Amino acid sequence: MASSTSFSLKEWLHSPRLFLSLLLLISFFLNVISSNYAKTNILSTCKFGAIYQFGDSMADTGNYIQLYPSCSYARLPYGETLKKATGRCSDGLLIIDYLAQSVEIPFLDAYLNKNGSFDHGVNFAVAGAYALPMEGPGLNSLSEQVDWMVSYFNTTCRYDKG
């Protein structure tokens, strides 16, 4: 019998206190990586097969333009360094792009990109995302990204229910 204090993955990720703790842990991990990266390319020896990214405009590789195709990120000068508008809120590469290069996998496609290749991970980040759930139309939150991730894994992961 399950205790009343047990959480499902979705409930755990939607809990603000636990979710913020997870974000702090990820931030710490990324700070350690970036400080070590200056000394040596340690990530290339890790042999990561995939990256799953959450975030806001600092990590969005195209989800926002899938939601709002007429936004300014859908045209140059955004993506100018990449020779095309990609939906990045930058004229070039994002930190997640450098991380992908470092672990020697292709850039992550946006989850909402129907033509995306997700063989090496998925980018769930969307520009303007809130850290905590918000009510209202057009408000994207990290909890919505978690919902996308759960949906993605439910449709792509195979497991034996027996």
Automatic annotation (TrEMBL):
Pfam families linked to this entry: Lipase_GDSL
For this UniProt record, give its keywords in alphabetical order, as a comma-separated list: Glycoprotein
Output the Gene3D superfamilies linked to this UniProt entry: SGNH hydrolase
Cross-referenced InterPro entries, in alphabetical order?
GDSL (IPR001087), SGNH_hydro_sf (IPR036514)
Q: Name one GO molecular function term.
A: hydrolase activity, acting on ester bonds
Top-rank lineage group of the source organism: Eukaryota
Assigned protein family: Belongs to the 'GDSL' lipolytic enzyme family.
Give the matching PANTHER family. Answer: ACETYLAJMALAN ESTERASE-LIKE (PTHR22835:SF515), ZINC FINGER FYVE DOMAIN CONTAINING PROTEIN (PTHR22835)
Protein name, UniProt field: Lipase, GDSL
